[in-house]
């Protein structure tokens, strides 16, 4: 089992920045890819970014490429999502997940409880 807890969400104006964190505990964190997903009201959960277990590979959704940066520190069992140039359409609950390298939610075995990001125009 891997337990994940997100933090860092909040309210920010368009163009601003937020840094989300994901604290992991349980099994060896570096054994798992870490993904970030988001879900807006009435919409399906959407892939945002993924980083490999050792942090050597990253991949982003086109909608966030160039604005968001995913990272991890396995020594501290943490992952981060730096979000810059935020837009109102980035408003959603953001979830971190641990599992295999994938862009689909069903491939992730472990999920955090989510943190809300609201971007005002």
Please provide a written account of the structure.
With 121 residues, the chain is mainly beta. It is 0% helix and 54% strand. The mean pLDDT is 97.
Which helices and strands occur, and which strands form pairs?
Blueprint (H helix, E strand, L loop, with lengths): L1 E6 L2 E4 L4 E9 L6 E7 L6 E6 L6 E3 L7 E6 L4 E6 L8 E8 L8 E4 L3 E6 L1
Parallel strand pairs: 2-11
Antiparallel strand pairs: 1-3, 3-8, 4-5, 4-9, 5-6, 7-8, 9-10, 9-11
What are its keywords?
121 residues; mainly beta; 7-stranded mixed sheet; 4-stranded antiparallel sheet; globular
List the total number of helices.
0
Uncertain segments of ≥5 residues (pLDDT<50)?
none
Query: From N to C, what is the helix and strand string?
Result: EEEEEEEEEEE
Q: What general outline do the C-alpha atoms trace?
A: globular
Please provide the count of β strands: 11
Category from helices, strands and their pairing: mainly beta
Please indicate the percent range of residues in DSSP E strands (runs of 2 or more): over 45%
Mean pLDDT: 97
The radius of gyration is 13 Å
Instruction: State the end-to-end CA separation.
Output: 40 Å
Biggest beta sheet attributes: 7 strands, mixed
Helix fraction bin: under 10%
